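Board notes (copied after class):
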Amino acid sequence: MEEHPEVLGFLFETNKFGKTLYDSALTKYGKAKVFRVIDSCIPASIVLGGIEIEAFIVAASCKNSDVDVINHLLRRDLDLSPTILIHR
């Protein structure tokens, strides 16, 4: 996450054991620490293909995304959400 915050979907790719990086991090470090790292590494919005997209939307579009991460990102960036719906 720290090295490639723009690759948010990497958190939700499954390994050969069927667990995502996010699941493995939760098991090893716990939810509070994982979300602190997410907050420090994942920006509120990410530029994909020249278009700025909010991080919670990117997380929600990932195949194996976790609802806790989507909810956390949305709540974290809640002040942005009205502008998403109104101005886009």
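Comment from the instructor: The chain has one domain: 8-87. The helical segments are 21-29, 31-41, 55-61, 67-76, 81-87.
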